[in-house]
Amino acid sequence: MTESTFWSEIAAKARAEHRPFFTMAPMEAVSNTVFRQVVAKAAAPDAFFTEFVYAKGITNSNTKFPVHGRLYVAPAEAQRPVVQLWGNEAADFVTAAAALKEKGFEAVDINMGCPDGTVIKNHGGSDLIRNPQWAIDVIAAAKTAGLAVSVKTRLGYSKLAEFRDWIPTLLRQNVDVLTVHLRTKQEMSKVGAHFEVIDELIQLRDEIAPDTLLQINGDIPDYQAGLALAKQHPGLDGIMIGRGVFASPFAFETTPQSHSLAELLDLLRYQLELFDDFATRYDVPRFPSLKRFFKIYARPELGATDLRNAMMDAKSTAEVRQILNESPDTN
C-alpha cells in the first residue's frame, strides 16, 4: 500500500454511512473539468476520475498524445480527481507520478482495461492484460511518488476465464483500489456485465489482498442500483458508474427524484458556461465534442426531440443558447 490516505478516507466515510463508495468512471472526452462540475452540481459521487492521460505526455509535451487541459482542475471543484494514466513504460509512470504529486494530486489510476484500438496499438489499456509484466512494472513505478495507486481493468482480454489468473496478478501488487469492469476486452459493451463473478472476485481479494478495496463497473445505471448490488454482494467496497450519467446527470442522487425539462436545461446552460470558460484557458474544446451531451438534457420522454435536433444543427454555444432562449418549451 502507498502512504496516501485518499482512498482510505473515502472508504471510511462510506462505511460509516453503511454503503459502498461511488465514483464516476474515467471517460475519454467526457470526464474533464467541465462535465465533472456539471455532475457535481447535479449530485456528486465520492470521487471523480479524469479523462485518459498518457503517462509520458505529462513530462514530455512532444508525444503524439499530449495532455493539453486534461489535468486542469477548476477552483470550484471540491476535490481533485484521480488522474487516470495509460501507457506501458515504467519510467514514464515514475516521472508522471512525481510531477502529479508536485501539482497537488493525491491519487492515480492505471488504465488496464480500455478496449480502444489506438490505445491498444500503443501498448496501453487492455494490452496490459496480455502483458502482465508491464502491469506489474508500471504499478511499482507509479507507487514511487507516494500517491494512492489504483487500477481499472477488465475481466480478461478475449475469454472470461482469464480473470482467474489476471485478477490475482493485480491483487498481488497490493494496489489501493482495484476496479473491475465486468466484461472482457473482446466483449466491448456488446454483452451484459458478468455480475455472476462478483462473489468470486471478492473471494480472490479476501484471500490475496484483503486491504485492497474492490470496486466494480459495468451496467450500473445509478446510485440505487449500486446500493442494491452491494447489498447482494457483501464485501464489495465501491461502485463506479460510467454510461449511467448519460441516462441521467443525477445518477448519483441518493434519493431518486423526477427532474423537469427546465431543470435539465438549466444544467445544460451551466455546462455551456463552463465549456466557454475552459476554451479560454486551453485551445482544446471543440464545439462538436459538446454535442454528445445534448441527449442528456433534451430528452424524448420529456418532449424535447425537436429541441435536441435543433441544437445538433448548431455551430456554436451562442447558437445553442439562442435556441434555448427562443424555444417555448424551455421558458
Automatic annotation (TrEMBL):
<keyword id="KW-0560">Oxidoreductase</keyword>
<feature type="domain" description="DUS-like FMN-binding">
    <location>
        <begin position="24"/>
        <end position="264"/>
    </location>
</feature>
<protein>
    <recommendedName>
        <fullName>tRNA-dihydrouridine synthase</fullName>
        <ecNumber>1.3.1.-</ecNumber>
    </recommendedName>
</protein>
<dbReference type="Pfam" id="PF01207">
    <property type="entry name" value="Dus"/>
</dbReference>
<keyword id="KW-0288">FMN</keyword>
<keyword id="KW-0819">tRNA processing</keyword>
<dbReference type="InterPro" id="IPR035587">
    <property type="entry name" value="DUS-like_FMN-bd"/>
</dbReference>
<comment type="function">
    <text>Catalyzes the synthesis of 5,6-dihydrouridine (D), a modified base found in the D-loop of most tRNAs, via the reduction of the C5-C6 double bond in target uridines.</text>
</comment>
<comment type="similarity">
    <text>Belongs to the dus family.</text>
</comment>
<dbReference type="InterPro" id="IPR001269">
    <property type="entry name" value="DUS_fam"/>
</dbReference>
<dbReference type="InterPro" id="IPR018517">
    <property type="entry name" value="tRNA_hU_synthase_CS"/>
</dbReference>
<keyword id="KW-0285">Flavoprotein</keyword>
<dbReference type="InterPro" id="IPR013785">
    <property type="entry name" value="Aldolase_TIM"/>
</dbReference>
